[in-house]
Amino acid sequence: MHFISYSVLGLTLPLACIATLYERADQLPASTSYDFIIVGAGAGGTVLANRLSDNPGTTVLLLEAGPSNLGVTDAIIPMLPQGLAVTTYDWNYTTTPQSGFAGRSIEYPRGRLLGGSTSTNTMAYTRASSEEWDRYAKLTGDSGWSWKNMQKYMLMNEKFVPSADGHNRTNQYNPALHSTTGMVSISLPGYPHPFDSRIIETTKELSKDWPFNLDMNSGSMLGIGWPQQSIDAFARSSGATAYLAPQYLARKNLHVLTNAHVTRLIQTGTDSGKPAFRSVEYTTADVPTGGTSTGPRITVSAKKEVILAAGAIGTAQILKLSGIGPQKELSALGIKTILNNPSVGANLTDHPLLSNIFYVNSNDTFDTFTMNGTLIAEDIAVWNATHQGPLVDSPLAHLGWARVPSNPYGADTTAGPTTPHYEILFSNGFLSSTTPLPSSGHFMTIVTAITSPAARGSVTLKSTNPFDQPNIDPNMLGTDYDMYLMESAVTAILKIAAANAWKGYIIKPFEDLAAATTPAKLKAYIQAKSATIFHPACTAAMSPKGASWGVTDPDGVVKNISGLRIIDASILPVIPSAHPQAVIYFLGERGAALVKQQYGIN
What we know:
Layout: E1 21-22, E2 34-39, H1 43-52, E3 60-63, E4 93-94, E5 107-108, H2 130-140, H3 147-157, E6 158-160, E7 184-186, H4 196-205, E8 223-225, E9 231-232, E10 235-236, H5 239-243, H6 246-249, E11 254-257, E12 261-271, E13 274-283, E14 298-308, H7 311-321, E15 324-325, H8 327-332, E16 339-340, E17 346-348, E18 352-360, H9 367-370, H10 373-386, E19 399-402, E20 422-427, E21 443-450, E22 457-460, E23 471-473, H11 480-497, E24 506-509, H12 511-514, H13 519-529, E25 531-532, E26 564-566, H14 580-599
Parallel strand pairs: 1-11, 2-3, 2-14, 3-11, 6-7, 14-26, 15-16
Antiparallel strand pairs: 4-5, 8-19, 9-10, 12-13, 13-14, 17-22, 18-21, 18-24, 18-25, 19-20, 20-21, 22-23
Helix pairs in contact: 1-14, 3-14
């Protein structure tokens, strides 16, 4: 979503000041060999790089296709993340035409810099429900993925910190559930919104449908509560700022190479009859999407493992370019199939999103500065000088999670009765990627997002060119069930907007929503204005050892392959009913522990 279009890109720091952060392959020490090579510096990859290198006897190379995050202002100031879309810091993906979106293709941003999408997202931090994790344990046959057994990894990741304004946080979260000694800084909002009290009043007036939830990271998510965000009081806390902080980059056994686009993995032999993949081919040539590279291909090998952490899109593409995937698809492109696995690139799942906008009777919305470049420049100056003001928070205010009261379409897609079908997100202004920002006015947006969709899509190769985008088909709103969930969610937020708590504040729905007065018009509105919340997952799903489906075993090791593991959103067998950032961090924490256990690393 293009929350804030104003961009202040361009403030950069020299990489030479960081001992093990390199931007050219020829800067890497020539004599170094690596135990582990990690592909992708997002939520999973940064955790792995940090945890595996905390033993000085273990050597790690982390490859990131994009540049450094250092000094990129839009990746620092919480209110400005979407200024990075359609830039060099974005993979600039586009989906195939989506039938559920009336045939529209949509932009599909993914972070392309250190931190990956943790450097570009809206910083929502949700653990998912306890039922979700228990379902992962059941689906994979590994009790280590259960809610109870994942608690220690959640606490290892999280460092709860005071909000920017230092306000009293009593009754806004449950501190007993949280850690203050982990890695990623988490905080509550640090700048008040004019409707905060109205949202709390809504939880009293509509308590049956929308009870107040003190802490949605308790394992029970239903209701409305204060958002927890990966913000270190006033600045973004990402995989890069937390797990690749200067004290970790100073480790002599950790090398991080930016601008390293991995083109494929290379088979290095066989182990007990299994193909072994311990070599990575990459280039540091700056190649535009769809272009070709005449630059040299560089090969680097791992003594123990290559670990893919390139995300649900990148991991599937790299596997297929390397000969691991559906034989029919690979053969059609002339790629030699080394391992025929139809599950690679299948099962792509994402959360459809719709921005429902209302005119409001308030001058205190962020529309004031999004419509005025001079004012936002002044707010940036305040942020720089005082670390206060409206830019210390993401564009999101309170979050809410709910279930539909009945399901006319058969089996429930959620993990259980305390897991939501959909989410609502309040925002103090005009928030949309499908409707142009008006030149004037003041608005509030209540976003609706389907968090337990039934539709499944795919990632397939367009060509053998590693710089070509793959065909990305998330199949958004691709089932009648998913459309029903979105219709139910919109109906629910209209009920919220009509509550007494909002009298005198909400004036009326914005144009497109106001016109959705019949079931047919509501469906047309949803198809015309929906987008994605950018949570692709599940394209290399975990399954039990010995299962005939799936791509990895429960420990992330690629089935029927030696020396190759995956730790990122692609291995989730089902998309979580949550913002997946925290979930992927937790995958990284446990994934690193499993690697250490396998190789006897203390």
